[in-house]
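tool_call: predict_structure(chain=1)
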Amino acid sequence: MPADIKDLNKYQKVNHFPGSNQLGRKDLLWRNLNRLRIKFPNEYSITPQSFFLSDEYEDFQADRSLAQNSNALYILKPAVGSCGRGIKIVDSRQNVSVSNREGVLASHYIANPHLINGLKYDLRVYVLVTSYCPLKVYIYNDGLVRFATELYSLDPKKINHKYIHLTNFSINKNNKSKFVNHNDE
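tool_result:
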């Protein structure tokens, strides 16, 4: 237990539990899910196969060589990035340079995602964890839906078009041709 936590008084609160970054960082979350996926393959096949490139580059390359004939796509995300920065999509033939692989999580890109009106989206459900022992989790009644702002397409000419493939608000708010934010009016 970290010293700054064990010295807290009973009435004091913290906004992060020790080790909560294991859920918040893409690379650490993948490592945890993959460990469970190996132990319980049926129960934990909920995420696409991924590779943390600094450690699993050879496995990633082997997976890509198997996918050469299938037009498989991979999404590369910086492990500690946010707001869509540094994300790109590559096919099984594109070079992923060794110098750019540090701190990158490469995942199979889901080519047929569920769409709403032809747009990619993601859902967020917010929870508050007040205790781990006993476990107390409160689910907020409202969630958040984020949309891409242009119609989904796997056209090779549009594969790196961020407004089609990314749902990050910080990216899509800049799409002047499609995005309308009624809260700014």
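agent: Residues 1-110 form one domain. Proceeding to next step.
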